[in-house]
């Protein structure tokens, strides 16, 4: 867990709410005050702030933030202010309704969350959008993409530590046969990725490498421009090495010509309270530069300050 929150006994929710109200008052918005409060409160504390703000001022804090802030800073504050399950529902809805074949956000959400967290996100989706995420995914996607995404979204994986090695060897062989035959949309291939526990999938893919001498994702790079294969590789990376997946998203977001603020914002907001420390270590290992330095070089102003506070390099 990231150390971004202040111990509960050291803060007053009522004071936070009053200070946030002050940040919106007068001629200008006090962005620094907003960052100093929200970036250093955990999910439970932010939920209390949100509820207390509504009962005190009869206003929605998110709407007040959206009205007062703009651009990338508004986006990161908005995503951070949401609870984890509401945030996932919001991002899933966006990704589904604006779906393109290169969009990997849905896979990112459904394959890196725990079974329980995914269930909470699906319940939040029901509450927010009055329909199921499965319904929207089925409606907005097509072909092989729908065939892969729908079972991934609909699954409730077992999360115990048990591994069946006999099954791992059998299914590694099965996966290799399907990939050799270029049956990338095969029912069994999708079934294994969509239903097996993450530890079982890890065991199967280790067997794959042991038996056939290559990582499965190397064998799935037959056509680097094939967007379905890219989604399949992202699925496997998210299920097995989420920190490597997120490091790559951040690296591509920061290092390419022009920053991909959408990806940078999403990963920082969704992983700050989960595994940001591991992602930062992976980023340093892979790029020989710290994530905070890379962010500081590529961003500016209040947006940069909020990002750095959330990755644990600001005033935390």
Summarize the structure.
It holds the Pfam family Annexin. The chain is an all-alpha fold and 316 residues long.
Write up what this structure looks like.
It is a single chain. The chain is an all-alpha fold and 316 residues long. 71% of the residues lie in helices and 0% in strands. The chain has 20 helices and no strands. It has helices at residues 13-24, 31-38, 43-57, 61-68, 71-81, 84-97, 105-112, 115-129, 133-140, 143-154, 165-180, 187-195, 198-212, 216-219, 227-240, 242-255, 261-271, 276-287, 291-298, 301-310. The longest helix has 16 residues, at 165-180. The chain starts with 12 loop residues before the first helix and ends in a 6-residue tail after the last helix. 37% of the residues are buried.
